[in-house]
Design goal:
The chain is an all-beta fold and 126 residues long. The protein is built from no helices and 11 strands. Strand 5 and strand 6 form a beta hairpin. The radius of gyration is 13 Å and the shape is globular.
Length: 126
C-alpha cells in the first residue's frame, strides 16, 4: 500500500511558477515509478509527466515540455513537479500517482497507476 498526499497548489498569474510536492507513505516508494496527471473542469484526466523508480528516466507531455520539471527524492519519499512559465490552460487539479514496476514502460495511461493522491488545485490567471 502507498498513500500519496499532494501539496503546493495555489493561484498564480500567467508566467509564474509553482512547485508541487507529493509525499508518499510506505517503505517501498523507491520501487514505484511516479506520474503527475491533471484534470481540468469538464475534461478527462491527462498525463503530465512521469519519472522512473530511480529517477533516471523521465517523460513529459508535449504541452508541458520545457516548462515543467519532474524529480524525486527517494530518501524523502517525495516526488516534485516544478512548473514554470505557467499558462491559464495549465489550470487543473493535479494528481500524483504510483505505478509498480513490472509493467513494461515506466509510464503509461492513468489506468495503469495503482495509487493516487487526493489532488491539489492549480489556478493560473491571465
Amino acid at each position: 500500500q502507498v498513500q500519496l498526499v499532494e501539496s503546493g497548489g495555489g493561484l498564480v498569474q500567467a508566467g509564474g511558477s509553482l512547485r508541487l510536492s507529493c509525499a508518499a507513505s510506505g517503505r517501498t516508494f523507491s520501487s514505484y515509478s511516479m506520474g503527475w496527471f491533471r484534470q481540468a473542469p469538464g475534461k478527462e484526466r491527462e498525463f503530465v509527466s512521469a519519472i522512473s523508480w530511480s529517477g533516471g528516466r523521465i517523460y513529459y507531455a508535449d504541452s508541458v515540455k520545457g516548462r515543467f520539471t519532474i524529480s524525486r527524492d527517494n530518501a524523502k519519499n517525495t516526488v516534485y513537479l516544478q512548473m514554470n512559465s505557467l499558462k491559464p490552460e495549465d489550470t487543473a487539479v493535479y494528481y500524483c500517482a504510483a505505478r509498480p514496476q513490472g509493467r513494461g514502460s515506466f509510464y503509461g495511461p492513468a489506468i495503469t497507476y495503482d495509487y493516487w493522491g487526493q489532488g491539489t488545485q492549480v489556478t493560473v490567471s491571465s
